[in-house]
């Protein structure tokens, strides 16, 4: 699909994306690049990074890949520094690296819980921490705010509760807290905007194939208000909106991009039935009011 944004929406910006070599992260890398940004991607798998960088470069996007694990502070520091060395600055940090697997709370070991917290929550904070010195100076010009931008990829699981996802729910709740607290502190002190995106079920991603069996996957459509799975493009457009000047007054928000799925509940009564039920119930209550008789008031 064609982007509704101008091709120079991120012109001159330098973005570093963790988990930017595959899935949603790669689509955001691609769209940022197509809209003028230079793109550095960080990931653990060299072959994934190499393929992603070649694909970006074949689109004419200045791109570079750096191996690293967000759980290691020395990796975070090295990759942030290498990005700045390569492109001269850093304007945008996208924290997309995440770990996930389905497991019941009963079967999850504390180390399994900790592993996901370490990648998603601590990893996000570590990247922000290492990038701060550069983001303070980033994002200058084109009417945008003074500093750079951080975009945290979250989820909607923890808005209510999610089966077999206690570790990810806890980790993403922490990510949302980071988004708000950094937006407050670094927005005030350095004009750095910190926002998040909470994807729902997005077709054709490692998340959906790893977490949702095919037969359930097709049922998801029945519960989704907009009645379809999302696409990586939907996520990337939301990221562009938040990263571009269109989002320059948005700070501390996590935008759910899920077609309204997190709000959904099974319909307990048909639309026609509810009219009938509601009118009948109203008539009944007028005919026989309960409680204190009006003559005694
Ligand atoms: N069910 C239950 N526990 C699991 C598990 C599963 N499917 N996968 C891993 N764990 C537990 C392990 O048993 C281990 O705990 P233990 O030491 O008490 O046994 C702990 O998690 C760490 O596992 P390990 O395989 O050593 O971690 P890793 O660092 O190699 O891998 C993961 C990290 C587990 C998150 C891995 O799934 C991963 O890296 N995935 C790629 C990213 C991804 O999932 N993306 C999807 C985004 S939606």
From TrEMBL:
Residues 273-297 are annotated as: Disordered. Its EC number is 1.3.1.124. Keywords: NADP, Oxidoreductase. Gene3D superfamilies: NAD(P)-binding Rossmann-like Domain. The keyword Oxidoreductase applies. The keyword Oxidoreductase applies. CDD domains: TER_DECR_SDR_a. It comes from the Eukaryota. It is an enzyme of class 1 (oxidoreductase). Residues 273-285 have a biased composition (Basic and acidic residues). It catalyses: a (2E,4E)-dienoyl-CoA + NADPH + H(+) = a 4,5-saturated-(3E)-enoyl-CoA + NADP(+); a (2E,4Z)-dienoyl-CoA + NADPH + H(+) = a 4,5-saturated-(3E)-enoyl-CoA + NADP(+). PANTHER family: PEROXISOMAL 2,4-DIENOYL-COA REDUCTASE (PTHR43296), PEROXISOMAL 2,4-DIENOYL-COA REDUCTASE [(3E)-ENOYL-COA-PRODUCING] (PTHR43296:SF2). This is 2,4-dienoyl-CoA reductase [(3E)-enoyl-CoA-producing].
């Amino acid at each position: 699909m064609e982007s509704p944004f101008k091709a120079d929406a991120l012109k001159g910006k330098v973005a570093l994306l963790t988990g930017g070599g595959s899935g949603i992260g790669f689509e955001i890398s691609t769209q940022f690049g197509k809209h003028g940004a230079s793109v550095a991607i960080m990931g653990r798998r060299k072959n994934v990074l190499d393929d992603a960088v070649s694909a970006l470069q074949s689109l004419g996007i200045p791109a570079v890949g750096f191996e690293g694990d967000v759980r290691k502070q020395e990796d975070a520091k090295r990759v942030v520094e290498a990005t700045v060395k390569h492109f001269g600055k850093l304007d945008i940090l996208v924290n997309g690296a995440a770990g996930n697997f389905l497991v019941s709370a009963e079967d999850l070991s504390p180390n399994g819980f900790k592993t996901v917290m370490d990648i998603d929550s601590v990893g996000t904070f570590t990247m922000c921490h290492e990038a701060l010195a550069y983001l303070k100076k980033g994002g200058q010009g084109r009417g945008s705010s003074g500093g750079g931008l951080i975009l945290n990829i979250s989820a909607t699981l923890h808005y209510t509760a999610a089966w077999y996802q206690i570790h990810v729910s806890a980790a993403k709740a922490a990510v949302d807290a980071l988004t708000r607290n950094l937006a407050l502190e670094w927005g005030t002190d350095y004009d750095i905007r910190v926002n998040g995106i909470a994807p729902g079920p997005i077709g054709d991603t490692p998340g959906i194939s790893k977490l949702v069996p095919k037969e359930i996957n097709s049922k998801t459509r029945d519960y989704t208000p907009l009645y379809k799975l999302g696409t990586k493009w939907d996520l990337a457009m939301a990221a562009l909106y938040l990263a571009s000047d269109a989002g320059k007054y948005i700070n501390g928000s996590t935008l759910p991009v899920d077609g309204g799925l997190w709000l959904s509940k099974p319909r307990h009564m048909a639309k026609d039935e509810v009219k009938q039920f509601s009118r009948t119930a109203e008539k009944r209550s007028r005919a026989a009011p309960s409680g204190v008789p009006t003559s005694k008031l």
